[in-house]
Amino acid sequence: MDQKEGHLQLTETSSRAEEGGGLTGFERRMLTGLLEACEHPKLSIVLWNGEELRGSSSEEPVARMHVRDRGALFRMLINPELYTGDDYSAGRVEIEGDLVGCLEQIFRGLDSLPDKSVKARLLRWMNRPRANTLAGSKENIHRHYDLGNDFYRLWLDTEAMQYTCAYYARPDMTIEQAQRSKLDHVARKVQLKPGDVVYEAGCGWGGLARHFVKHHGAGKVRAFNISEEQVRFAREEARRQGLDGRIEYVLDDYRNMSGECDVFVSVGMLEHVGVENYPALGDVINRVLKPHGRGLVHSIGRNKAAPMNAWIEKRIFPGAYPATLAQMMQIFEEHQFSVLDVENIRLHYAQTLQHWLDRFESHEDKVREMYDERFVRMWRLYLAGSKATFLVGALQLFQIVFARGQDNTVPFTRDHLYRI
Amino acid sequence: MDQKEGHLQLTETSSRAEEGGGLTGFERRMLTGLLEACEHPKLSIVLWNGEELRGSSSEEPVARMHVRDRGALFRMLINPELYTGDDYSAGRVEIEGDLVGCLEQIFRGLDSLPDKSVKARLLRWMNRPRANTLAGSKENIHRHYDLGNDFYRLWLDTEAMQYTCAYYARPDMTIEQAQRSKLDHVARKVQLKPGDVVYEAGCGWGGLARHFVKHHGAGKVRAFNISEEQVRFAREEARRQGLDGRIEYVLDDYRNMSGECDVFVSVGMLEHVGVENYPALGDVINRVLKPHGRGLVHSIGRNKAAPMNAWIEKRIFPGAYPATLAQMMQIFEEHQFSVLDVENIRLHYAQTLQHWLDRFESHEDKVREMYDERFVRMWRLYLAGSKATFLVGALQLFQIVFARGQDNTVPFTRDHLYRI
Fold it and tell me: Which of residues 331-370 of A touch B (CB under 8 A)?
């Protein structure tokens, strides 16, 4: 969608844009101060009256951010991370030019605020994650998870609808190829053998289970998920493909796993587990994993402990938290699991998100029919912003392979992952 | 060396063996209790009077441990981890059969003592690491590090005398091939390019620097080490090979590094750094590493935090501490270094130690001439015990690759390590 055209549809914005007058001296000092504190991003800010302020005087801006009214400017000065997202969704802020590049500039800038500055501390306080799910979050959870399979089918890979980072074994892969390649990469990492019993914690639409049975000869996959709609879809798909005898999609919490398995996998669930529950996750794995079993945890992470981006945490994924590797080790230490391999494929998530964004944008009209313009803008910002977050290195994607500490049947080298 | 022959030379032991009498009721209960607490190791204990007690009544012992006198038994009951090592060195304890296998049984047993048992707590207190280097440790440091190049040359690889874990790209490699292969593996992991400036923290006898210059075209290597004897050897070797123009061996602490580098490596130094100094190591790396630089730390580690084996910590490497991955992350977090890759090659250390042990045993006569029988026994126990420690999974070997958090020139996959 052309950005300008998108804006023209926002009549709410057009009316607000008529608020008159330029910046007061105070507003100008505050805005200039914010741009300075953010280390002069390569952006320019265009105000409702047409005035343009450049973040960097020496470098060309990658994008122009239009602030349509004085209220949006105030909100940006108070809490740029949170409110700029809201105001973009509402059309009170518009980006002209490269959306991802613009967000990279903003995230790099916010990241460079000194940790102990008053502004940084104030933002941390305002953007602190909610300890409990409040009424406000419920609406957001509902918006994210109950959007329905028809919506996700529009822009995720068509084969298995994997809503997690793909693995581009070759850089020119399509999203379908890269998602398949991710499952193969995971299967090789856990040395999946024909007949193996696999337990999966958090299975989304169930693609991993079907792939492991179809292409790697898994004997049985028990895949846990608490989303009814996803489990219903996964079961139907397994039945349609004649795989339902070897796959059990369990509508239950991973903490209720029982029995035993050769392989434990969890792809993209840890983000929602909460650090305080990592030892409990370790207890579950210790309960079910056989003596020579292998495990893999695939999760978004951080280089340094910090909360999730405030807008994403509050508007998209309430309660989500990307942990550091040190924090993730709380899963493994108590039972002396041995971490065999950690791979950081952050750049693959940037590429995955670009593929999702391309496909989302090519279906924007349909999305607008299903929802509304605000939803289209919110979702575009979320996908573009997530890509920018991985590109600036604010988020990582870790795949952690582990086994029991005394198991000497672990692979001697990682050749089996590459010499295929 | 034949174990029996070794024993016969220990006249001190022979005289002690004449202490008469069998076990008292109390001694028998204590010894039986220790074997039970250690989950019935597949060992038998043969007393000075010929009486034999089997750890496991159902399984064949892998070795027989001869306790030559009542004093050695007492010491074993009080602190098996520490004193059994001392008494083996003194010949008051002898192992008949597979030494490494016997030590694996002991370490598995000690490891299975419940963490909160009185015995386990007492052992932790007795074996706590010394906070400072006391007079007693000085003697041990001296014994380990000033043994001289002639001693280490007897059993380390002949090419570069690398006193760190090798990498067996193929399982049938010799120690020379595997040490070369380790250096190649490290060079590929840091994507070493011709002309790169490399800083090395803790360089041993300097083999990495020479290999990087000779075989990977490093432009300049500055390698830091505080051991005078090792630095002298390394400088002579570089001169002899005509490499001294491109290698600077610096007799100084890594904390005094200045300037900047494309590659930072540290192979086998972290064990002696101390967790409390990890943030300082991170500061050093942050000071010297260029924006697109790569780093690698290679170190012994743990699955769960615990002190070093007491005998090794007190008799061989005072102050040594194998950290967990979570602890190692303290090097990287503050400056938001991005951990790209962690590989655990613990089984390679078991194989490295077997190669060292084989070569050491084939030169035992020479070692006995240089030192004495107690030294031969102590060193044999140290090498065999270290191998057993890696085999039972009590120690790990981590290679951690990292880069700056915002660097998007990091490799997309790990293909470059394997498709060569």
Answer: 332-334, 336-348
The pTM assigned to this predicted structure is: 0.91
Highest-pLDDT range among A278-287, B151-160, B371-380:
A278-287
* pLDDT over 80 (residue B122): no
Checking if the pLDDT of B178 tops 90, the result is yes
A81 Cα to chain B: minimum distance (Å):
19
Domains annotated for chain A, with CATH where assigned, are 3-126 (3.30.1050), 142-418 (3.40.50.150)
User: Would you state the pLDDT for residue B108?
Assistant: 86
Strands B261-267 and B247-251: unpaired
Residue B175 neighbours by CB under 8 Å, 6+ apart: B156, B157, B166, B352, B355, B356, B359
Q: Which of A172, A303, A337, A398 to mutate to test the interface with B (most CBs of B within 10 A)?
A: A303
Q: What is the DSSP letter of A129?
A: P
Contact (CB, 8 A) for A210 and A197: no
Tell me how close the Cα of A398 comes to any Cα of chain B, in angstroms: 9
What's the pLDDT score for residue A19?
Answer: 52
Residue B359, pLDDT score: 97
Nearest CB neighbour to B391, from listed A338, A408, A415? A408
β-pair partners for A297: A266, A400
Any B CB within 8 A of A407 CB: yes
How many H-runs (helices) and E-runs (strands) does chain B carry? 19, 12
How far apart CA A150 and CA A128 sit, in angstroms, is: 33
Residue B249's DSSP bridge partners are B223
How does residue B141 score in pLDDT terms, banded at 50, 70 and 90? Answer: very low
* A residues 155-194 lying closer than 8 A (beta carbon) to B: 168-169, 171
* Inter-chain touch A412–B336, beta carbons under 8 Å: no
Q: Which of A367-371, A409-413, A415-419, B321-325 has the lowest mean pLDDT?
A: A415-419
The pair of structure tokens assigned to B270 is: 């972290």
The distance of Cα B291 from the centroid of its chain, to the nearest Å, equals: 33
Q: Report the pLDDT value the prediction gives residue B135, as an integer from 0 to 100.
A: 47
Express as a percent the part of chain A with pLDDT over 70: 87
The answer to whether B393 contacts A406, with C-beta atoms less than 8 Å apart, is: yes
- Residue to mutate among A325, A341, A347, A410, with most B CBs inside 10 A, is A325
Residues of B in contact with A332 (CB under 8 A): 303
Tokens of A60: 């060309």
In terms of Cβ atoms closer than 10 Å to its own Cβ (0-12, 13-18, 19+), residue A359 is middle
Residue A111 confidence class, pLDDT cut points 50, 70, 90: confident
DSSP secondary structure letter of residue B256: G
C-beta separation of B87 from B75 below 8 A: yes
Q: Which of A37, A41, A154, A19 is nearest to A97 (CA)?
A: A41
Structure tokens given for A5? 């055209």
Nearest Cα neighbor of B380 from B368, B397, B391 is B368
Residues 270-329 of A with CB under 8 A from B: 303-305, 324-327, 329
pLDDT at position B126:
64
- The pLDDT value recorded for residue A20 is 63
CA B202 and chain centroid, separation: 15
Residues of A within 8 A of B397 (CB-CB) are: none
Question: What confidence score (pLDDT) does residue A128 get?
Answer: 66
